[in-house]
Amino acid sequence: MxxxxxxxxxxxxxxxxxxxxxxxxxxxxxxVLRSDTGRDWLVATDMLMEGVDFTFPPATAPLVxxxxxxxxxxxxxxxxxxxxxxxxxxxxxxxxxxEFARDLHAGLLDLANQYGVVLAGGDTNSxxxxxxxxxAVVGEPxxxxxxxxxxxxxxxxIFVTGALGGSIxxxxxxxxxxxxxxxxxxELVNIHAMIDISDxxxxxxxxxxxxxxxxxxxxxxxxxxxxxxxxxxDDRGPVRHALSDGEDFELVFTVSSTDGxxxxxxxxxxxxxxxxxxxxxxxxxWLRTPANSLVPLPPLGWTHPLDGGDLIEASSxxxx
Length: 320
Ligand code: ADP
Ligand code: MG
What we know:
By secondary structure, the protein is of the alpha+beta class. The protein has nine helices and 13 strands. It has a seven-stranded mixed sheet, sandwiched between helices. Strands 1-2-3-6-4-5 form a six-stranded mixed sheet, covered by helices on one side.
């Protein structure tokens, strides 16, 4: 696995067996729980730490509150679900005062209201450390079933919402979780597999490939490049950034080629979608360069500071 903590998560996972009411536990964007109504419950949780996930400045208390909820809304959206309720636990730095804590929650509540999510509980502590905030979100699938990382099939087309790269220049704090887009997609087509981009397009696509036991060919010239990349001043080119920058919080998903064609014709939302490649039966992942040659595409992301660096352009990592 890739990140150091992935080895730990694997160890934890080896000691846990999914059983009723858990239909899908550790290993996807959210857990899927059975409910008595026959409809699934989705549960996601994510912790943000000052100094790792954000720093003050450029972050502000309202923006951190907002982001701590937004990353979870993104995970629920990636399961094809609507977020409904949130739980917030904070370790507040003792010296920052109550105004700071209110601003943090005000930012979170603004986003919760925007998405019709009810704040339903949490835990408040203070200590002489930096800010730590954990949010857990409950949701339900838009359609009959949840969408996991497991269902990609050979011949599927790979799509991505929005544009990628350069989120470190500010977007990682202000991004819009793709909840509306997830709802529209589940209504329009049969999504086979989906994930949100937190580690980087290449790294997160690899999660779909591993769990679906398939491979992919990604077309470098089809990857939508974000305008924020103009602010990235290093020797890595825009495609390299778009493949490996983390925290885009866009959706990557696969559909049959028939559904792919329909999507291209019938998608009229303000958030664009783009077909970036195809799923293959052979389990390798390749990048088709603009010169039409295939180079291996490793799971580049902020957790892969040097892997495969010479394959596309120079390499490094981006971690907001
Ligand atoms: P994401 O990037 O989508 O938030 P993570 O990489 O943080 O997902 O986690 C991968 C999977 O491991 C998720 O299903 C998550 O719920 C699970 N997980 C992470 N840490 C733990 C833990 N300490 N105990 C149990 N499950 C965990
Ligand atoms: Mg995720």
